[in-house]
Fold each of these.
Amino acid sequence: MTSERWKQIEAVFEQVLALPEAARADFFKRTCDGDEELRREVDSLLDSHARAGSFIDQRSQFFSGEMLDEPGAAVEAGQLIGPYRVIREIGRGGMGAVYLAERADEQYKKQVAIKLIKRGMDTDSVLRHFRNERQILASFDHPNIARLYDGGTTETGLPYFVMEYVEGLFINAYCEEHDLSVTERLKLFREVCAAVSYAHGHLVIHRDIKRSNILITAEGVPKLLDFGIAKILQEGDGAEPLATMTGLRLMTPEYASPEQVRGEPITTASDVYSLGVVLYELLTGQSPYRATSQSPNDVARAITDSEPLRPSTAVGSNRDQQLGPEVSNTRRISVSAIRNQKLLRGDLDNIVLMALRKEPRRRYQSVEQFSEDIRRHLEARPILARKDTVGYRTAKFVRRNSVATAAALLLLLSLLGGIIATTWQAQIAKAEKGRAERRFNDVRKLANTVLFDYHDAIKDLPGATKVRERLVKDALTYLDSLAGEAQGDPVLQRELAAAYERVGDVRGAIYGASLGDRAGATESYEKALRIREALVIAAPRDVQNRRELAASYKGVGYQLLGTSEEPRGLELIDKSLAVYSQLASQQPSNTQAKRDLGKIYSAMALALESRGDMAVVLENYRKAIPIFEELLAQNPQDRADRRSLSVAWENLGRALFLKDDLSGALQSNEKALELRKSLAATDPTNADYRRILAISYQNQGDYRAWMKDITGALESFRQKLALDEEAFAADPANAQARGDLGYCNLRMGDLLKDSGQHTQAVPHYQRAIQLYQAVAAADPKDLPLGLRLIILRAHFGETQAKLGNTVPAGEECAQAADLLQKVPDQPGNVEIGRLRMEACIALGDAYLVLAEVSPAPNSASENRRKACDVHRNGLAVMQELRSRGLLQANEITEMEELTRKIAECD
């Protein structure tokens, strides 16, 4: 059955289900119209529905919420759980129960709450949720989050943990009990926001924020509870789709965001939505949504499709149908506090509805923004959720300064004749200020939309570089205009830093699809780094700020490798490692912290390759690999972790190759290759996955060539060539794709030359020169690229000479020699040293072949002299590398051969 046919059957079934029995026959006649198969399928569904009874409509089968009449033996009063004596049960949910208890050993007097897994629910999945909650609470220390005291396992093997016992009322009941005003409710709600913001700062999304998870103590202190289904932030995170949920507590539908209901990725914006539902209820006494029934489909449809009434409108409406007992059993609210709809109309309407927007990107981007808008409302200041007009700002000013405004009006009346001109000028200035502020907000919104929404939607599509270039050029203008206004606004500063990094990625990321402008990219990354450093200085304990600063250190450090500023690049990468290591040690159970640590180990190893300390390089790669293997074992479908593990295996292979362990290099690269094949198979149009797959074929070809398996090497490079050609054809503006294709043609030319197929090598060399010249022109500071171009011209010159084309051979050698003289020394950089050595050997060998085929004796003698001079330079580099123990076995043999050639010259 096709998906279209099933949709047709489902649509007819739902329509029939809503009809009375007497009307169904006529409906079938009109709708099926001779389609007997359609009629049979719908009848079958109706029959199954009738036999199921009320089972399908039971919310407990699909949603979180308190499980009613759930079987399972309770722990009786007086029974011991570890060193605690149970007093009574105080709550029961999908995974377990919560008991009030006290210390049994009388070391101290204190009542606590103990959360215990129920017998029969101790499955791997539930235990993982339970341990996750315990680990999350262990890392928290916030006055508005219930604290974790202890934990352990019962004698029967059931895990438990001991929490702070919070004696209080649900937030809505507290507001009713104390008859809180709207202002008091808002202030109390901001304290709840502070707790959620703290969790987000520790990279944890709660995912089940609701009134019953917010208790208010007798002292009026809110406490956020129940992180049982919380999620640690990670790439590719998503919620389980609504249709597949079981009786476990996965979410409470009345408070779930549309993306949770649809099973889409969950972000901090999902908690913003749930907080919006809580605030809506605190202000109106009603749920934002109405469902036609309690069936899962109707509940989901109400959440995802219907728009809530404005709170000021809802207060005055009679809405009897609410979303389930979570709302309907606590409808009361302080009517005296909200009877006047004017208290909610305007700002509060806009604030609440912005938090409840269907699209996550259109909500408040953080809980801090949500809470900040409430503060602005309380202080009668302009809010983000409302269009910023002059009249609106003026009204806010008058409300904040009512006494001063009245006095000014009296003065104005008494001196009206003398100050008309001044008042007029003041109004003009105020209007100009309003226009400037509106423009500022518009520019800020546009820059974020361009760089984050549009850019992210296309960044992995083939052929996207040109469009990204245009987006970046436009966004850069807006960013620079915003930068001067960002001081004192941490949210805007973080937006700017992230935006500058996006700009850097497109302009010339060293290891990404870009326009090849490395200098421009470094400039953008440096701007982001300065902003990140200032944010950490202002808030040194903020985890997110520190994590983003570490990423900036790594990004700028990578950009500087292989340039004259390489020492600073290594220093920045080392700083990044220090920050990531500290964060990982402080949050041992945080998945993202582990992931960051694995990536920085790989980054540090790659950076240290240029220094030649291969023992340290291998040590760092071997630290990274177990981290990613552990993460992937926990979530085998995570593509980001699979990619990171493939990079670690690939880099380990290259390090082993440089240590002369060719067998180990091939084995490591094979592991990377298999991981990348699976990635490309899951997403065949992803340009990044296809590129890293091509790199694995490249490494395989290089290793086979080093082992003298020219046939195998050619086969590997032909597989790479096919992928590179497709990438370049799809995105010719991408400097990375151009460079990849250039290198592939260079190596194809070399392999064909070494196997005596000189004629076949020529077109590959010509294509490589054309591509390399374009890349080098865009990034003249890329020293490895410049040296590869020299090697390329020398090899092409040698090929031309062997074909008897002495004039073009001489021209290629002359251009290679000229380029070689211009490459600055990079003492201590092994990669640059090895490439310079290879360039000298290649150019010297080309001159020797040219001398053999030169028709004139003088010309032959001159070419031999040039060969000798360049070979001597290459020998000097080899001797320096050998003194540091950095020459491979094959290179030592090559050094001996080079010494012989120089001796023959003398």
Note: The CA atoms of residues 475 and 628 lie 35 Å apart.
Amino acid sequence: MVYLDANFPFIDKFPLLPHLSHNDGKKIDVSLIYENPNGQLTNRKPSVSGYGVYESPKPKEYNQTTVCKKEGYWQYDFPKYLTLGKINKDIQFSENGTRNLVDLILKQHTIGKMFIEPHLKTRLHLANEKIRFHGCQAV
């Protein structure tokens, strides 16, 4: 499992911007799972920073980014500017790997909720009541 950030480590109750909820040491951003051309899972990511590259909705899937931006939430996809470049162009999103990781995380009794984009929740057939949409105001 690869995580991107968890909390601002220097000042209690101060969020790690732009993550306003990362202020208590109990939140973490987990990376999606990718696979190489042979179908093997990898910990490589498509961007240098780990941020800014998303698994976009397929043509008939719900597009939350478009909805949020139409509602005036310009910041919704802002991390696309934080990639620091794209790498590992041979890897692709692993639906099975990501679904298995989500299932393992949600089996933990200490997990209260998990945020994931609505199109991925649908695509991965995730139905756990802990899975939620974080809202358009989030990044």
Note: Residues 3-7+20-132 form one domain.
